[in-house]
Amino acid sequence: MEFFKRLSPKTIGIASALITIAIWTSFIVVARAMALKSLTPLDIVLCRIIGAALVLLPWGFFMVRKMRSANPQAVTSLWISPLPLKLTILLGTFGGVGYAVLAYSAFTFAPAAHGSVLMPGLLPLSTALLSVLLLGEVLNKGRKMGLLLILSGGLLVGGASIWQAYADSASGSQVWKGDLLFACASSCWAFYTVLCRQHRLEAVPTTIAVIVFCVLAFVPLYALLVFSGMLVSKLSTAPLWEILFQTFWQGMGSVVISGITFTQMIRYFGPVRSTMLTAIVPGLSALGAVIFWASR
Fold this sequence. Notes:
By secondary structure, the protein is mainly α. The chain has helices spanning 2-5, 9-34, 41-70, 85-106, 112-135, 141-167, 175-198, 203-227, 240-269, 271-277, 281-294. Helix 8 (203-227) packs antiparallel against helix 9 (240-269). The model has no long low-confidence stretch (mean pLDDT 84).
């Protein structure tokens, strides 16, 4: 911990950006590789939450105890979230359950390549709009030009594949449903991003609050729907390695590590610049996919 305290805010911000971009890029490549495996989208969401909870719930428990010990009037919620109840619910709804359910459900309708374009590609635009509306930010000409270039780059990277899917309307393609879900998932994450900036949240308490809400809101509902027969789960038939992989990768990587680094990146760069940096993910993920599949 002493080592991190000696680092400058700029160093931490840049390192957080690099780690976030690397994990987001890997997430797209892994999603492509795992798209035709055994688990359903909601099974993967459950693995994601459980994997993160194994680390973050004990962390949150001791953090809340420490906060209460230092200040008995400290505002916490749900016995284990270091943030107030209303903020925990908002962050968990948009940055946790909403984003994950929409994103993973989208992969059942649209190819992962569309997700690599639409989710990080639309994120800077929706974040900029929400920042103007909720934070009163003013976009200068440079940022406006940057957003225009990001939009153009996203269209160049994914425009051909998306246009081809829509052009073949006779096949009854449902790709548009997946693309709509990807866009909604991106909007959820944009709102989460702006909330972090608006309330000047620290990285670790924010990530803990998100997973606390996910555990209390999603897990019981998922279990109820599965045991009532209203939802099909393939956890009982899926290979153990796949369940463990999704639990470790989605939970530890996508939630714990990138959740903390992304929030830290927002603290240094702000919501608009942070999402503009992550806009290079589509191109990197496309390059990563080419290298991955070529090596097989």
